[in-house]
Amino acid sequence: MDEAYEQEVERADRALRRADFETALRHLERAHVLAQRMTGRHTFIHWRMLVAGLRRGDVREVVGQVPRIVASILFSRLWVPRGNSGRARVNALKPMPVPDDLRHLVP
Question: Which Pfam families does this entry report, sorted A to Z (predicted)?
Answer without folding.
Answer: DUF3703 (PF12487)
